[in-house]
Write a structure and sequence with these properties.
Number of helices: 2
Radius of gyration: 27 Å
Strand content: over 45%
Largest sheet: 11 strands, antiparallel
Shape: globular
Number of domains: 3
Distance between the termini: 56 Å
Order of helices and strands: HEEEEEEEEEEEHEEEEE
């Protein structure tokens, strides 16, 4: 083979390598391998539930919201309220209270009724299905059936994307969280006990509840806030987050401030990035 032929062969090999490499780089770029900075997303999700067995009237609720440096993270205009069975004309706004900004939910009348989820089973134990019925329509014959009480639910939520990554290991110090009072570290089981970075802290947070109802009616308020980071580059994907949960149960009519018991789960998910 002469020098000219060798040169052509070498040039051909170089071009082929360049084409393959270019295709590989394009593939990595398409998968996010060269867009690491743009592969991260962070957001907060704030959700709440009011569950009641009977109708409430003259309702006012002040609920804690995620706060960072004294400023509420959420905008009341973006909060949605949904229900499957009840009806209420909710007014939603942010108000300032002695305990900081809170989400105010008010309504003249909030319909509520106790329902039951009736599950039916075959003689061999196979689940055949279920239906949701009011209390006065419970089957007279409960053979091969089980009924579970189900109050009327009102659910409210808001999703808040943020640019900065959320500190999921110490959110009270440097993230937006529900107000934390009387925290006790390691007083509850981590959400994922096998995760070495996971921890759980109990806490209290204030809320205001006012409404009229029957003396034996039970209403339940629950809030959940999560702060989540997600990332993906190449074939690698992951996430980490913290979660706050608070609850309070009220029997009969009520008017005044109350203490909501909570649990704060931190360090959940993959390593901090």
């Amino acid at each position: 083979m002469n020098l000219r032929s060798i040169g052509i062969a070498v040039a051909t090999i170089v071009v082929a390598i360049a084409v393959v490499a270019g295709g590989f780089l394009f593939l990595l770029s398409a998968l996010g391998g060269f867009g690491v900075a743009g592969s991260y997303t962070s957001h907060y999700q704030y959700e709440g539930t009011l569950a009641t067995n009977e109708t409430l009237t003259n309702v006012t609720l002040y609920l804690p919201v995620p706060v960072e440096n004294g400023t509420a993270l959420i905008d009341a205009a973006n909060v949605t309220v949904e229900t499957e069975d009840g009806a209420a004309d909710w007014q939603v706004e942010l108000v300032e209270t002695p305990d900081g900004p809170m989400l105010a939910l008010t309504a003249d009348r909030v319909e509520g009724e106790l329902y039951y989820l009736v599950h039916e089973f075959d003689d061999n134990g196979t689940h055949l299905g279920w239906e949701k019925v009011p209390e006065d329509e419970l089957p007279a014959d409960m053979t091969n059936k089980k009924a579970y009480a189900e109050p009327t639910h009102y659910r409210f939520s808001v999703y808040v994307p943020v640019e900065d990554r959320i500190d999921v290991t110490d959110p009270v110090a440097s993230a937006a969280v529900l107000p934390v009072e009387n925290p006790t570290a390691d007083a509850c089981e981590p959400y994922w006990p096998d995760d070495e970075n996971a921890a759980c802290t109990t806490f209290e947070t204030p809320g205001y509840v006012a409404y009229d109802t029957s003396a034996d009616n039970v209403a339940h308020l629950a809030l959940e806030l999560s702060g989540t980071n997600e990332w993906g580059f190449g074939l690698s994907n992951g996430f980490n987050q913290f979660v706050q949960k608070t609850t309070v149960t009220v029997t009969g009519s009520h008017e005044g401030w109350t203490v909501m018991e909570g649990e704060l789960y931190t360090g959940m998910g993959d390593e901090t990035r």
